[in-house]
Amino acid sequence: xxxxxxxxxxxxxxxxxxxxxxxxxxxxxxxxxxxxxxxxxxxxxxxxxxxxxxxxxxxxxxxxxxxxxxxxxxxxxxxxxxxxxxxxxxxxxxxxxxxxxxxxxxxxxxxxxxxxxxxxxxxxxxxxxxxxxxxxxxxxxxxxxxxxxxxxxxxxxxxxxxxxxxxxxxxxxxxxxxxxxxxxxxxxxxxxxxxxxxxxxxxxxxxxxxxxxxxxxxxxxxxxxxxxxxxxxxxxxxxxxxxxxxxxxxxxxxxxxxxxxxxxxxxxxxxxxxxxxxxxxxxxxxxxxxxxxxxxxxxxxxxxxxxxxxxxxxxxxxxxxxxxxxxxxxxxxxxxxxxxxxxxxxxxxxxxxxxxxxxxxxxxxxxxxxxxxxxxxxxxxxxxxxxxxxx
Length: 391
Ligand SMILES: [Zn+2]
Hints:
Bound molecules: zinc ion
Radius of gyration: 32 Å
Number of domains: 3
Number of strands: 12
Order of helices and strands: HEEEEEEEHHHEEEHEHEHHHHHHHHHH
Strand content: 15-25%
Largest sheet: 5 strands, mixed
Structural class: alpha/beta
Oligomer: single chain
Helix content: 40-55%
Number of helices: 16
Shape: elongated
């Protein structure tokens, strides 16, 4: 009887009488019964409070203070004096046919929001992973409307037999709108065609992917297409890295040692270098003319990215193109080609603050979810989990 008041507080259910409570190892057992009251016979509607017999039902509840909680409900069976029908009393906190309380179910669903493994969260809820997943499978997410700014990106989810999935977000309001099973143009087209409010979309942010651009032009003909800034900068960083690696290989063992920290130093913006680092960079550039040119191209491109608007960016980009043409750096050719091909979308990005930065952050979170996933190969569950965590 020690825990009577305490357990009553834990239980918190209405019309419940706690008869006994005890802790046994890590388990808290609470014995309860419902208040006796008049019930209506489900068959003839006659009123009765005549008890026929009892049955003990063991129910799991949310863990409390580090203990797993078991409720032992002494369930009453009433009998109707009129038609002799026997029936169990009503227990409002217990969903039908469940061996757990409604709030334990709510607790499990809530814990799926955390980026922890299913095994772990099931353990802390005192259920098996299979049960936890079965409960979670009742959650369904759907998206009904499209935002003003829409971002499309892909990530390697390896779910539902497809390597890549597509993520649709609202970067302005930082919301994940949907996860699509693949990145095939015809499927994306079919998906977006269903929306009646496509005219809401004024900006579409994408990386420099041709299929996405064609799709955006078809599906959102009035929207401005914005090339994601991060992606644009990344292209240049990659090109620079290719030059650096190629040049480094040419050096003898001794000099290569000298280049040990080169990657970090050379990728740093020049104005962020300490005087000592600046000298090191200068020495590296002296060794290779190609590296020096690549360094200039990279840094000049940062300046393009710092442009205050599309007008300024256009001038700076033209300057950068001229610079590129004067050098002999085939590693940068793909950048040059992409910047020409995507000039309009890149310039658009200088007049609005929208990028895929939010989506990129989500992609990192998805990686963690995948690592801890249980049955993630099921696409629907994978999608629901991501939307649940991000909701
Ligand atoms: Zn009856």
